[in-house]
Amino acid sequence: xxxxxxxxxxxxxxxxxxxxxxxxxxxxxxxxxxxxxxxxxxxxxxxxxxxxxxxxxxxxxxxxxxxxxxxxxxxxxxxxxxxxxxxxxxxxxxxxxxxxxxxxxxxxxxxxxxxxxxxxxxxxxxxxxxxxxxxxxxxxxxxxxxxxxxxxxxxxxxxxxxxxxxxxxxxxxxxxxxxxxxxxxxxxxxxxxxxxxxxxxxxxxxxxxxxxxxxxxxxxxxxxxxxxxxxx
Length: 232
Fold this sequence. Notes:
The chain is mainly α. It contains nine helices and no strands. It has helices at residues 2-60, 66-74, 80-105, 113-116, 133-154, 164-183, 189-199, 201-205, 209-226. α1 (2-60) crosses α6 and α2 packs antiparallel against α3 (80-105). It is globular. The N and C termini lie far apart (37 Å).
């Protein structure tokens, strides 16, 4: 029983944390975007991570992002089996968060998912700054690389553990400030998956980029730590 509990506790934490990230982050765009603007949306994503880092960090490490789990695995900090379990919990959490957001957004009489969306990621004609696929892929790969570098660096032995959550949340905030007009900012396949599954159409067709590019960036960051190039 104790072994089962040790396995399921972090998975439950990852599920809740990822759901909260999608609900608060994407919710800031869908429910309050006109009121808070791009800076407010950026802060919502960053502050959601800060909150979850201190809320569930002691239980699961607060990855709430398959790219972070992949980076941790590439760095030799978690097993492949644990990574795959985290991926499943994060994907389910991202979908659950998107479902809750849709339920709330649908309470507005003029809401239409096809028109208003769920904060889904994208690129190209008709999407925010209308950046092309090369810009979108480059941004997602590079931004995820830098994000995972901060995550792995802030949580390595010798780093000041008490401020790790704040550093990670602030990094995600600045990534959103710079990148929202490019892709809406994913750097997190689970954050992209939930809204895309419900919105369907173009969001689902473009989902591959928000899986492949973040994982490539995370792999590069994890390799640098595995090779001790960025180890304290």
